[in-house]
Design a protein that fits this description.
Blueprint: H1 2-14, H2 26-42, E1 47-55, E2 58-64, E3 70-76, E4 81-88, H3 96-106, E5 124-131, E6 134-141, H4 146-164, H5 171-177
Antiparallel strand pairs: 1-2, 2-3, 3-4, 4-6, 5-6
Length: 186
């Protein structure tokens, strides 16, 4: 068996074919994602950051973020995904808001966005799901670059709160869902 794999390597080398780089190992991916999230916490983007359980290529992270709520990030190295299970609560699956949110998230891949805001579809794919009116947002890592994917996921969710929810269409939903006093909104 070893001779066969050595022979294949020699043939690849002779043909000028490189073997694809190894994907992140589990500890590397977990530490990479943790490092990015810890960096955001140290800069004050998140508050109350903590690492949760880590086992079998899966890790959980928790932090206080938008609207003074706790958010969890779930990393699954084998599936190459990072998911925030509840980004927006109480959004009916068949609602206009859910459809518009899906379109907004899809637009994060658009060439019309500046490169620093765009998600390169060759590197990562943003996705959303609505289960029992709880909208989760996640990202699939396509090229093994967990740092890129983590940063783009944070950026996309940040834009959900700063752009999508702030344009006025969902003013009543925001006030009701987050129990905000409208007189104290900035």
């Amino acid at each position: 068996m070893a001779a066969l794999s050595t022979k294949k390597a020699i043939v690849r080398k002779a043909a000028g074919v490189r073997k694809a780089p190894a994907a992140f190992s589990r500890p590397d991916a977990v530490e990479t994602v943790a490092g990015v999230l810890e960096n955001y916490a140290s800069r004050g983007v998140f508050r109350g950051f903590s690492r949760g359980e880590e086992a079998k290529g899966k890790a959980a992270f928790r932090m206080m973020w938008h609207k003074d709520r706790f958010y969890e990030f779930h990393l699954d190295v084998k599936a190459e995904t990072i998911t925030i299970p509840v980004v927006l609560p109480d959004v009916p699956a068949k609602s206009e808001m859910n459809r518009e949110l899906a379109a907004f998230l899809e637009s994060r891949h658009s060439e019309d966005l500046p490169p620093h805001r765009r998600i390169d579809a060759a590197k990562a794919e943003l996705f959303a799901a609505n289960r029992k009116s709880q909208v989760s947002v996640g990202i699939r890592v396509k090229d093994g670059d967990f740092e890129y994917a983590t940063r783009k996921l944070v950026g996309a969710v940040h834009e959900v709160f700063l752009d999508f929810l702030s344009d006025g269409r969902y003013y009543e939903w925001v006030i009701e869902t987050y129990e905000i006093d409208p007189d104290r909104m900035a």
